[in-house]
Design brief:
The complex is a heterodimer of chains A (112) and B (115).
Chain A (H helix, E strand, L loop, with lengths): L3 E2 L5 E4 L4 E7 L6 E7 L6 E6 L3 E5 L2 E6 L4 E6 L8 E8 L8 E2 L3 E6 L1
Parallel strand pairs in A: 2-11
Antiparallel strand pairs in A: 1-3, 3-8, 4-5, 4-9, 6-7, 7-8, 9-10, 9-11
Chain B lengths: L3 E4 L2 E4 L5 E7 L6 E7 L6 E7 L5 E2 L8 E7 L2 E6 L8 E8 L7 E2 L3 E5 L1
Parallel strand pairs in B: 2-11
Antiparallel strand pairs in B: 1-3, 3-8, 4-5, 4-9, 5-6, 7-8, 9-10, 9-11
The chains are: A mainly beta (112), B mainly beta (115).
């Protein structure tokens, strides 16, 4: 059974700091990796996706993928209180239209 | 980005009744739609995958006769919870995927409470 593991948190960081969110996955055949943000009572919204080893940057967000270690992370620079949410890691064994396996999410709290 | 809507956003029903939830892709053609369920403080669990015009593929442990999925057009999929019971109370979320990007766009979710 495919598993995606995340620390449930909460991860507390001060405003302006870097938040580092981590995720490990069990299926070595996984090919696509996604980070979603979910506010309480709302549905997830896609932040970033990454397919290749290395870093991918989009604004304040950087996704990092290491397939050999089966590890994917999300860095949030200059964290804002509005970033406070649960961050879900999801993996797929093919492209974006494939089934996603979600982790349980890490709750991030950005404090003033 | 693409917009996916769900209706209703919340529903309360009595035990033993059936509830239908609609998922619509508003500005793109969704060749594939996914239905998820999320219990409090848990992650999203995929229930089924449906392709337009085909029968849905259900995940292990999901009762196909209880959760009826219809994907009759490229913009609409429905999930019917038949003979609902209190343990079916959950947050049901659909997502839609289609050309050209094939990303999964999530609907806002439907909160079902069965009394």
């Amino acid at each position: 059974q495919k598993e995606v593991e995340q620390n449930s948190g909460p991860l507390s960081v001060p405003e302006g700091a870097i938040a580092s969110l981590n995720c490990t996955y069990s299926d070595r055949g996984s090919q696509s990796f996604f980070w979603y943000r979910q506010y309480s009572g709302k549905s997830p919204e896609l932040i970033m996706f990454i397919y290749s080893n290395g870093d991918k940057e989009d604004g304040r967000f950087t996704a990092q993928l290491n397939k050999a270690s089966q590890y994917v992370s999300l860095l949030i620079r200059d964290s804002q209180p509005s970033d406070s949410a649960t961050y879900l890691c999801a993996v797929s064994d093919t492209g974006t239209a494939s089934k996603l396996t979600f982790g349980t999410g890490t709750r991030l709290q950005v404090t003033l | 980005g693409a917009v996916v809507s769900q209706h209703p956003s919340w529903v309360i029903c009595k035990s033993g009744t059936s509830v239908k939830i609609e998922c619509r892709s508003l500005d793109f053609q969704a060749t594939t739609m996914f239905w998820y369920r999320q219990f409090p403080k848990q992650s999203l669990m995929l229930m089924a995958t449906s392709n337009e015009g085909s029968k849905a593929t259900y995940e292990q442990g999901v009762e196909k006769d209880k959760f009826l999925i219809n994907h009759a057009s490229l913009t609409l999929s429905t999930l019917t919870v038949t003979s609902a019971h209190p343990e079916d109370s959950s947050f049901y979320i659909c997502s839609a995927s289609g050309p050209p990007s094939y990303e999964q766009y999530f609907g806002p979710g439907t909160r079902l409470t069965v009394t």
